[in-house]
UniProtKB/TrEMBL annotation:
Subcellular location: Cell membrane
Pfam families: BPD_transp_1
Family note: Belongs to the binding-protein-dependent transport system permease family.
Transport keyword on record: yes
Protein name: Carbohydrate ABC transporter permease
Membrane topology field: Multi-pass membrane protein
Residues in ABC transmembrane type-1 domain copies: 70-262
GO cellular component: plasma membrane
Key words, A-Z: Cell membrane, Membrane, Transmembrane, Transmembrane helix, Transport
Residue spans crossing the bilayer: 12-34, 69-93, 105-129, 141-160, 181-203, 243-262
Keyword Transmembrane set for record: yes
Gene Ontology BP annotations: transmembrane transport
PANTHER family: ABC TRANSPORTER PERMEASE PROTEIN MG189-RELATED (PTHR43744:SF12), ABC TRANSPORTER PERMEASE PROTEIN MG189-RELATED-RELATED (PTHR43744)
Length: 277
């Protein structure tokens, strides 16, 4: 009995230690938001700033068009999430429920595209967008999401495969069409998978740095991730670390909020999507 208690104590101690290791940088980031630049380089580290500086948020928004960065990121992220859900759900339904003989072949072809690095197609895609006069607009970051994503199609299709075919047959007997099956049966029963895809898409689009850096050039079109780097470049010789920390904290707040309130559906969607192939 004592041995079990000892192992339990060691187990909880290890969990607390690992939690502190992961949460330590976040605590330091929050602390940096309320520091001066001089306080950032003091040793030992001041976890609780003394004195507290409350004006970093105001200075940041006065220095950079942060509202424009946040607006651009929200527009791109929300529309990208909608586009991904719309396109991937339709394609996944086709792969899960159509009776075509070539269905599995084309599904394998779709999965094979996951092995192609995005950098391989970057130049041709950039040329296409340039010919369409989409450079320095959010369109190159939004329109492709309405054309599907192989990984998310796979994830949703795997979840659709766990839904019994008897529900489809009952809907057809009642006079329902394929659209009825999708809208009334598949989508309501696949909420965990759809929420999982939404989280993946939202986080990926919100934190994306590479694509906005390539397609967006003007300050008023920049997203938050690129804007933070632009802020660092403006002070290359004398980086204002508290302002960078403030901008970084703003950028992670939506992600923290979403993961906190969607964790249950996120875990359920990931687990159930791999039950049946």
């Amino acid at each position: 009995m004592k041995t079990n208690k000892m192992f339990a104590a060691i187990h909880y101690f290890a969990l607390v230690l690992v939690a502190l290791i992961f949460i330590g940088p976040l605590i330091f980031l929050i602390s940096a938001v309320f520091k001066t630049n001089e306080q950032m380089f003091r040793f030992p580290i001041e976890w609780i700033p003394n004195p507290v500086k409350w004006t970093n948020f105001q200075e940041l928004f006065d220095l950079m068009p942060m509202w424009a960065f946040i607006r651009n990121s929200l527009v791109i992220t929300v529309l990208s999430t909608i586009g991904t859900l719309f396109s991937c759900t339709l394609v996944a339904f086709a792969f899960a429920r159509t009776k075509a003989r070539s269905r599995n072949f084309w599904f394998i072809v779709l999965l094979a595209t996951l092995m192609i690095p995005s950098q391989v197609t970057q130049i041709p895609v950039f040329i296409i967008f340039r010919e369409l006069n989409w450079i320095d607009t959010p369109l190159p970051l939004i329109i492709p999401t309405f054309l599907g994503n192989a990984f998310y199609i796979f994830l949703i299709r795997q979840f659709f495969m766990t839904i019994p075919n008897e529900l489809d047959e009952a809907t057809v007997i009642d006079g329902g069409s394929k659209w009825t099956i999708l809208i009334r049966i598949m989508i309501p029963l696949s909420i965990p998978a759809l929420i999982t895809v939404s989280i993946f898409t939202f986080v990926g689009s919100w934190t994306d740095f590479y694509s906005p850096l390539i397609y967006l050039s003007s300050l008023e079109q920049m997203t938050l991730s690129v804007g933070i780097t632009f802020l660092q470049g403006q002070h290359a010789t004398n980086v204002n670390v508290p302002l960078l920390a403030t901008a970084s904290l703003i950028s992670i707040l939506p992600i923290a909020f979403i993961y906190t309130f969607s964790q249950k559906y996120f875990v359920e969607g990931v687990v159930l999507s791999g039950i049946k192939g």
